[in-house]
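Reopening this one. Same input as before:
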Amino acid sequence: MNIIINGEKIDFTLEKEKTAGEVMNGLTTWLDDSSLLVGGISIDGNQVIIADDVWRTLPVGSIVDLEIEAIDIREGRIRQLETARDYFVLMNNAAKEKDIESIKELSDGFPDLLRILPHLLGETSSPVFSPGLEKKLGDAGFPLDSNELDHTILTSESERTAMLLEVRRRETSDPLAEARGSAAALVAISDKLDDVAVNLQTGKDKLAMDTIIFLTELLQALIRSIAWINGNDEYESVIDDLTGILAELESALTVSDTVLIGDLLEYEIKPRLQELPERLGFTEEAAK
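Same output, byte for byte:
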């Protein structure tokens, strides 16, 4: 059996492997050591579904060529995000058209998608969006076990989720451009931070919290984007710095310490935001 990875035949010695699945288990471990993922598999020129179990039972002696597409982790994440996004786009179209048959088909794949959604959205430690989505769709009758379905909720939630996944895809596929945009938005919002503590102390809680929520969303977007840019120690330093200050802000918000919130925003966070373009090399001078 010839083993071909990204068009090149490799020297891979079979030991006790008797089936295609056993061979792939060994190759997957080998690729993992090189920070690579399996993006596609073809057996004797026929592409197979990676998650399918049928091809895994094929005897090694019956296979001439086992071809593997190896991709890096970032490319793998992009493909996962595109697949998840397209799923919710299909759901949105089906909900708008009240296409029950298509919605039933989508229901079958929903549990598997729901399991990986926190990972795709970067919520692995304490998922918030995915449980909320599951509840809202469940209240709307999805996954479908009858013809009773709230198409309005299904339409709005699928559209919202598809848009969020597209944002994550852009952060992954073009992290530098997304990081530049987030950094510019953070500089713009920095001048509003002086007013947050005043708003909290004068009963304008909603106005203050809207600013804080927007701030944290921008910071998280910046952190996610620059995490995909390799080989820059300053980027890693920025991530550590922003992650730490976000944790402090979260603690202050938890105990409603308006004085500490104000101090953090004015004296810790605001200067950091204004320094971001220079630290990240996004200024015109740095670009030259």
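So the earlier flakiness isn't reproducible anymore. For the record, Residues 174-278 form one domain.
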